[in-house]
Every structure is written in C-alpha cells, then in structure tokens.
Amino acid sequence: MASLTCFLNSGRRAVVGALRRRIHSTPSAPAQVTVRDALNQAMDEELERDETVFLLGEEVALYDGAYKVSRGLWKKYGDKRIIDTPITEMGFAGIAVGAAMAGLRPICEFMTFNFSMQAIDQVINSAAKTYYMSAGLQPVPVVFRGPNGSSAGVAAQHSQCFAAWYGHCPGLKVISPWSSEDAKGLLKAAIRDDNPVVFLENELMYGVAFEMSEEAQSKDFTLPIGKAKIERQGGHITLVSHSRHVSLCLDAATVLAKEGIECEVINLRTIRPLDVETVEASVMKTSHLVTVEGGWPQFGVGAEICAGIMEGPAFNYLDAPAVRVTGADIPMPYAKILEDNSIPQIKDIIFTVKKTLNV
C-alpha cells in the first residue's frame, strides 16, 4: 500500500511538473493596453531605470495628470522626480531645458500642445538650436510631450496640430505615435535620446486599447525614431498618415477592400526625421499616393511627403497625382457638425482614393 501511494505521488509530481514547464514555456498572449497606460508604463520604466529622468508639468503629480497619463508616478517617486508646476509654460519649459543642459533628462508635459505656444522660444531657440550653436558640445536631452491635434468640442484655441510646426525646425526630433506599442516604444526611445524631442500624443487616443506583444511589454522595448511602419499591405494605392488618422485610413481600407481596392497603409510614427524611403518603396509598388492628416493643408506634413515623392525616384512610378486629405483651412469651429466637416472623415478618404484611382 505504501509503495502504491509513493507511486501515485511520484506520478502526480511528474504531471504537475510537466504542466508547470508547459505554462512557463508558452509565450504569453498579447495584452490589451490603452495608449494612456502604455505612456505611463514607458515613463515608469525610464524613471526606474535612470535616476536623472524626472517629470514636470501642470497637475502631473498630486492630481495624477490632467489625462491620468502620469497616474501613480508621484506616489512611487515623490516630489523630486514628479513635479507639479504653476501655469507658466515658458517658465517650466525653461527649467526643463536648463535641467537637460545640466545633465538631467526631463520630461516636460504640456497639458495640450496648444499651450506650448507660450513656451516656443524655449523649445526652438533654447532647446533645438543649442547643440548646433555649441559645435556639438552641449546636448539637450529633453522630451516635450502632451496631447496634440483636434479633440472634441474644444474649439479653435485647443484644436491645432503642431506636427508641421515643429517638424519644420532643425534640431528637434518630432514623434507622432498611433498605437500603444508606438506610444511606449517611441517614448522610451525619446527619453533616452540626447536630442530634444517633441512627442505629440492625441487626447482622443488615450483611452483606445491595442494589443501589445510580449516583446512590447518588456522593460527593454524601444522603437527606432525615424522609421515608419506598414500597418496594412496593399497593391493598389498607398495611404500615409500619422496619429489618430491612421485608424481612419485602416477603416477606409477595410471598406475599400470589399470593393476590390487594396490600400497599403503607412503609419509614419515619426515626423522628423521623416521616413521617405518607406513611402517611396510603397509608391513604387502601388503607383498611387494619398496622404491623410488632421492639420491644415498649407505647408503641412502631407505637402512635405508629396514634395519628397516629386523630387525622388518614386515620381516616375506615379500613375496619378499625389493627393492630400487634410483638415479644413480654417480655425476649428465649436459646433459639432462644423467640427466634423473640418477634419478628415472615413468617407473623405474613400472618396479621394476612388477619385485618384479613377473608379
């Protein structure tokens, strides 16, 4: 009887051991993570990894951030690492730039990038130009981050896209993420970069959840700055976008696929440096190009992409003119029906694709 019990126990241990080995060897399933939580993870991991990193801005500490992106960080890292500031963008942006020059790695949050206009002298003249003007002796590793572009019902002074504004300025790196993976991997890369980085989030994307791979959930995960991603393969036309409008392009591509039109959708991820090579390769394959953005048409991101295609080898592959879908050339209205007609919608993308393909 004792030998039988011993045999059963050894068998039970073998089964349990096998199950444990199987559990530990099986890759974990992708997790659903919101853009807000991905940004929070990125800052948390970098604050933990590097004691020179700190966060400052309006309501980022005690209130957990206006959009709760910095939730829990103040309780974990305290007043010296998570700093609430007065409503003085030029002041705290200047503090961030000075701290970066002194060897720290500040993350400077603007409650919205519309308010960064108060601090643009610090961003451009103090941060962007210093490395060049010091002959490469003085790096300025600061990240300016916060929501950018149109939100919902906040009218003209809170609904501008600054991608083209900051993308125009040498000395800056400008990032415009779409997914949770973009947000985490690129923010971590931005914090580690020795250049000033403008990190343009989108308020309407904060609560959107995306699948994040096991790799993306790692503390070592970063994405290369300056490299676009093909989110959907297609052979008939190239759609190029950034931030929230990548979602609209993917939705439009799904509708068009039912009609036999296969769109290749490119998520730029980075505005400066711009990954023209990925766009060129796609245009050489599809022979058609449509750019989509929420900003104004004149001197915009789409205009720069179209100019790059015109001046490069992909021009000879175009079977139709490159076309831009943009926001309306007006300050953002407050009324919802006017607001909806002032920014690109899925129907606008579908209409433009069909017009470009002459179908």
Automatic annotation (TrEMBL):
InterPro entries the record matches:
PDHB_mito-type (IPR027110), THDP-binding (IPR029061), Transketo_C/PFOR_II (IPR009014), Transketolase-like_Pyr-bd (IPR005475), Transketolase_C (IPR033248)
Q: What CDD domains does the record tag this protein with?
A: TPP_PYR_E1-PDHc-beta_like
> What is known about its subunit structure?
Heterotetramer of two PDHA1 and two PDHB subunits. The heterotetramer interacts with DLAT, and is part of the multimeric pyruvate dehydrogenase complex that contains multiple copies of pyruvate dehydrogenase (E1), dihydrolipoamide acetyltransferase (DLAT, E2) and lipoamide dehydrogenase (DLD, E3). These subunits are bound to an inner core composed of about 48 DLAT and 12 PDHX molecules. Interacts with DLAT.
Q: Where does the record say this protein resides?
A: Mitochondrion
One GO CC term, this protein: mitochondrion
Domain of life of the source: Eukaryota
Signal peptide region: none
UniProt name for this protein: Pyruvate dehydrogenase E1 component subunit beta
Q: Which Gene Ontology MF annotations are present?
A: metal ion binding; pyruvate dehydrogenase (acetyl-transferring) activity
What are its cofactors?
thiamine diphosphate
Origin organism lineage: Eukaryota, Metazoa, Chordata, Craniata, Vertebrata
Q: Where is the Transketolase-like pyrimidine-binding domain?
A: 33-208
Which UniProt keywords are listed? Carbohydrate metabolism, Glucose metabolism, Metal-binding, Mitochondrion, Oxidoreductase, Potassium, Pyruvate, Thiamine pyrophosphate, Transit peptide
Which E.C. number(s) belong to this protein? 1.2.4.1
**Function comment:** The pyruvate dehydrogenase complex catalyzes the overall conversion of pyruvate to acetyl-CoA and CO(2), and thereby links the glycolytic pathway to the tricarboxylic cycle. The pyruvate dehydrogenase complex catalyzes the overall conversion of pyruvate to acetyl-CoA and CO2.
Q: Which reaction does it catalyse?
A: N(6)-[(R)-lipoyl]-L-lysyl-[protein] + pyruvate + H(+) = N(6)-[(R)-S(8)-acetyldihydrolipoyl]-L-lysyl-[protein] + CO2
Species of provenance: Conger conger (Conger eel)
GO terms classed as biological process? glucose metabolic process; pyruvate decarboxylation to acetyl-CoA
